[in-house]
Specification:
alpha+beta; Ribosomal Protein S5, domain 2; Alpha-Beta Plaits; 2 domains; eight-stranded mixed sheet; four-stranded antiparallel sheet; 10 helices; binds cytidine-5'-monophosphate; GHMP_kinase_C_sf; GHMP_kinase_N_dom; 4-(cytidine 5'-diphospho)-2-C-methyl-D-erythritol kinase activity; isoprene biosynthesis; kinase
Length: 324
């Protein structure tokens, strides 16, 4: 077919939670959250590359290949149909086929280029899903003659994971429910971050479960559901004020699972940054005063990191998933 090799590409940002308040466990296995997200300009790219033949049902995806641009150990095999980018393409195409039964679509392969730490607490998998949805919708418009509506894409995003809607949206947002009921937040200024990964991952589900256990024995670990301080700091545009307002209820669980991140936090503080566990960890997000401070802190911290640890610099807020 003459469309062979045609490419549909999109990128999507990582996130940091400026505030992560975790409420009670719910019957569906999730926890109610009150969280403030900021997207940062550390991006993953997803490409859909058209291959030969067509499909009229099932999956249009022949294969997925991941190119890791960071030096961390990844426990799971990323290149399988369970990859969130693959599942996102399947979900978008199946929603299209529900509206247009029997329509023929060309098969594709997926190429993911990952700059966001894997299972690091930065929603890298969710970014891949969001980018895959945006790319898949361009592919559907080209070969199916009509794209899915924004509302339909958002609905699909929610089924793929609690952080996927925010990866579509970007910016600064208040998240409630599972973290997927989003309202854009007013914010001024730009914020310079270092992200330091200890070379390991944490399963999000395990971090939430450990927090539940720890709360059993320690009544001091109450849910922090008030985001006023972060909201005020964001409207001030003052990084020092935001640094003082950062809060993460999951931090004690991440510190217990990966004690080595305590040393990373101390290094960040010695360099004048404000460290916080990013999401469910184990990545440490370090808020700096400005670009110059972030670069100085990068070079101050980097020589002290152990083998396998990785550090990167990023700026927020960044835009959500974007067609390239
Ligand atoms: O939605 P996602 O697949 O990213 O969530 C992974 C796991 O994290 C869930 O299965 C659940 O155990 C936990 N989680 C939670 N409450 C949330 C979000 C995630 O308990 N609001």
């Amino acid at each position: 077919m003459d469309s062979f090799g045609e490419v549909f590409a999109a990128s999507a940002p990582a996130k940091v939670n400026l505030h992560l308040g975790v409420g009670e466990a719910r019957a569906d296995g999730y926890h109610d959250l009150v969280t403030v997200f900021q997207a940062v300009d550390q991006l993953d790219d997803v490409k859909l590359v058209v291959e030969a033949h067509t499909a009229t049902e099932g999956s249009v995806v022949n294969a997925i290949y991941t190119n890791l641009l960071m030096d961390i150990e990844v426990a799971e095999d990323l290149d399988t149909p369970s990859n969130l980018a693959w599942r996102a393409v399947d979900a978008a195409v199946n929603a299209f086929w529900a509206e247009h039964p029997g329509a023929a679509l060309p098969r594709i392969r997926i190429e993911v280029t990952k700059s966001i730490f894997v299972a690091g607490g930065m929603a890298g998998g969710s970014a891949d899903a969001a980018a895959a949805l945006v790319a898949a919708n361009a592919y559907l418009e080209r070969f199916g003659g009509s794209a899915l509506s924004d509302d339909r894409i958002l609905e699909i995003a929610k089924t793929l994971g609690a952080d996927v809607p925010f990866a579509l949206m970007g910016g600064n947002a208040l998240g409630t429910g599972r973290g997927d009921e989003l309202v854009e937040m007013l914010g001024r200024g730009e914020y310079w971050w270092l992200f330091i990964n200890p070379g390991t991952s944490i399963s999000t589900g395990k971090a939430f479960a450990l927090l539940d256990d720890m709360r059993h024995d320690n009544p001091a670990l109450v849910p922090h559901l008030d985001t006023t301080a972060v909201a005020q700091a964001l409207t001030s545009g003052n990084p020092a004020q935001l640094g003082a307002a950062l809060h993460n209820d999951l931090q004690p669980a991440a510190l217990k699972m990966r004690p080595q991140i305590t040393r990373i936090m101390a290094l960040a503080e010695a360099a004048g940054g404000r460290p916080i566990v990013s999401g469910s960890g184990p990545t440490i997000a370090v808020l700096c005063d400005d670009e110059q401070h972030a670069k100085r802190a990068y070079y101050a911290i980097n020589p002290h990191l152990s083998e396998g640890m990785d550090i990167l610099l990023a700026k927020g807020p960044a835009e959500g998933a974007t067609l390239l």
